[in-house]
């Protein structure tokens, strides 16, 4: 059985944010109820028309807050938040605060309307430096990543990935309000998000 972890968690939303009943809102509440040491769910600037530089500045401040006290540091990204993390990792410098675990949920393929975010950097060394462990969770019918995040991101980055078949963009439209498996992953009660047989 896995040891219980008391994490410090940062949740990064995607384009347009993650309003109720998005699973990130549910997760933040459940993490607090479960005794997480610290939970951050910031509203990144201008979520409807985001610019990478503004989001990166906000992320830097959030990571400083995450690292302010001891504890396992966990980052949970969704959609465009994943692309933000990849930019952070590509510019990661030695001596910057490293986090312990990152999960990238449903990273999208390039979006023409968001030219400051794409192309997303594919930097395996940066990803390995920015976090001790990173994994991708994706679906084979994600309307925002027809190419499949496994081949588009996980394979070139050399990181583990969990395929949730037929689960769309892993958002409210796909039925992701509550997501108990993600809560268990954050709390260290499971090592991946693949369906259990």
Write up this protein:
It is built from six helices and six strands, in the order βαβαβαβαβαβα. With 197 residues, the protein is an alpha/beta fold. It has one domain (7-65, 72-186): 3-Layer(aba) Sandwich (Rossmann fold), CATH 3.40.50. The longest helix has 15 residues, at 52-66. It is globular. It starts with 6 loop residues before the first strand and ends in an 11-residue tail after the last helix.
User: Mean pLDDT score, rounded?
Assistant: 94
**How many structurally independent domains?**
1
| Proportion of strand residues | 15-25%
Estimate the helix proportion, in percent: 25-40%
Beginning-to-end CA distance, first to last residue: 17 Å
What overall form do the CA principal axes indicate?
A: globular
**Topology pattern, helix = H, strand = E:** EHEHEHEHEHEH
Q: Helices and strands in order, then pairings?
A:
Elements: E1 7-12, H1 23-33, E2 38-40, H2 52-66, E3 72-78, H3 80-90, E4 99-105, H4 124-130, E5 131-138, H5 149-157, E6 161-163, H6 180-186
Parallel strand pairs: 1-2, 1-3, 3-4, 4-5, 5-6
